[in-house]
Amino acid sequence: MFSRRNFLWGSSAAALVALRPDARAQQGAPMASPGSVPPAIAALPDLSGQARPFTNDERLARIERARQLMVENKVDAIILSNNATSSVYFANIRFGGSERFWALVIPAKAKPFVVCPAFEEDRARELLESGPFGKDTEILTWQEDENPFALTVKGLKDRGIAAGTVGLDENMKFIFADSLAKAGPGLHFVSALPVTAGCRMIKDQHELDCIALACRATLLVYRAVYQSLQEGMMTRDVRRLIQAGYQKVGFEGEASLNIGEFTASPHGSIQPQTIREGTILMLDDGCSVEGYTSDITRTFVLGKATDKMKSVFDVVKKAQSAALAAAKPGVALASVDAAARRVIVDAGYGPGFKYFTHRVGHGMGMDMHEWSYLVKNNMFGWELNPALRPNMVFSDEPGVYIRCEFGVRLEDDMHVTENGAELFTPQSPSLEDPFGNVE
């Protein structure tokens, strides 16, 4: 899947070891037998019918917006290559990554074209046929002993762009970008971010609906997994539960589970881990609905939490609420992080990034991490003094990580409204009741 936390899970011993019932089993949740699907997983609803595919008319509107941004930013064309997510956003095509150069070129004032290896032309036409450009899109092909970058520059010249500014997808391989620059010395190559991010970071209602559905599906799967956990299970066993849960709700998803001292590292460990009563567990990641992702973390305890665990949880929850309250249109990105960090530092877990070791949030959409980023000196921003705007979507995920002991992170996803911000999912009530009355 898409996750940045797709770790190796556990060892190769037998599955679903149940040493003794845990708190959920004692409260009435039946125990799972080896190879069976626990009742909580089996009861999950199929949500896939609630997802609506994006139409070609919606993508054509995105392309028109991109062209407006090209004019505003004095960019004559953008080039999206190989595995660019933006090529899916605009044209519903992903060419695949390899050393062979593919490109979708969208000029500001001319028809788009595609560059691909000659032996891939039929596949390119198949990919294009159902998209907004249709079967009439020009495809420029190159043989294995020819230069695809010179061909791309020629395609631009044929559309009146012999000189000017061309935006390149931010994730384009250096060798591709460098080769284009050598093939087109009369062109000025820049980042396409003002166009690609300028379009993608502001969501429309359909995009928000997809993210909201992904968040709901993730939280339902998490709750079912939580209700199915037993002491003695290992991380690999929990991964099977997660996979079964997402199969039931009808979306592709995954999650990482980290236990005990491994929760003190924000992205955990590849080490095999075993669930023990009284130990903190951290479940993190999400799923994808029509290409749009969720990213949710729940931290909880099997059995009884210690007073210190409860205290840290309360601090982190207050920090999450502070970030949410600070998020409003026109507010600087850095101030949202500062609001959450202030709560954590004032509680004694400071200074700076000592215990709260990462930013409070990242933009979200088709990629789990997108522009912009809720932190001072916003890393990948291209605007001066970046500020929140309505219909941006972010994670809200403060944490406190105490090395060699445990960590607590609470993560929900939020969208910026006209007057503030709202979470897609309810906050976690407590370590011992992490899901409350989730529906």
Automatic annotation (TrEMBL):
Q: Name the keywords, alphabetized.
A: Aminopeptidase, Hydrolase, Protease
Where the record annotates domain Peptidase M24, the positions are 210-418
Q: Is Protease found in the keyword set? A: yes
Q: What is the scientific name of the source organism?
A: Alloacidobacterium dinghuense
Kindly provide the name given to this protein in its UniProt entry: Aminopeptidase P family protein
Q: Which PROSITE patterns does the annotation name?
A: TAT
Please list the coiled coil stretches: none
Q: Which Pfam families match?
A: Creatinase_N (PF01321), Peptidase_M24 (PF00557)
